[in-house]
Amino acid sequence: MNRVFGGQRWLAALACTAIAMPTLLWADDRIPDARALGVAEAILDYCTKAYPPSIEKFQFQVQRLTRGASVEALTKVRGSAAYQQARAAEEGFVGKVDPHNAKHICAKSLKPGK
Q1: How would you classify the pairing of strands 26-28 and 31-32?
Q2: Where are the alpha helices (DSSP H) in the chain?
């Protein structure tokens, strides 16, 4: 059980990193990095479903991650193989989290400084 919780801490840390550091996503000219955006959106989508009270905060975080990018740029990034592969891999990973622990992880990822 301790092993599982440790893995969930890692997931929470990953979610926090994806949310707290959106400037790392910008490769050049306000185009988000495809892999980083795929991971971030998979985590955000998972937590929005797993913990519905967080939906507005997570929607804000998605907007923050994509701020400054055009609709065309985002469409291109989301259609790329790198984005699709990263998102699918992350969805597979978060899909293994016990639903009873998802609320705890998602709520923690919204707290500043975590």
Answers
A1: antiparallel
A2: 2-20, 34-50, 55-66, 71-78, 81-94, 99-109
Query: Which amino acid appears at position 48 of this protein?
Result: T
Burial class (CB in 10 A: 0-12, 13-18, 19+), 1: exposed
Residue 113: pLDDT band by 50, 70, 90 thresholds? very low
> What is the dihedral sign for C-alpha 75, 80, 86, 91?
positive
Q: What is the pTM of this model?
A: 0.66
Q: Is 23 exposed, middle or buried (0-12, 13-18, 19+ CB in 10 A)?
A: exposed
> Greater confidence, 77 or 16?
77
Residue 44's contacts (CB-CB under 8 Å, 6 or more residues apart) are 15, 18, 19, 58, 61, 62
Which letter does DSSP use for residue 97 in this model? S
Please provide the DSSP assignment of 40-55 as one string.
HHHHHHHHHHH-GGGH
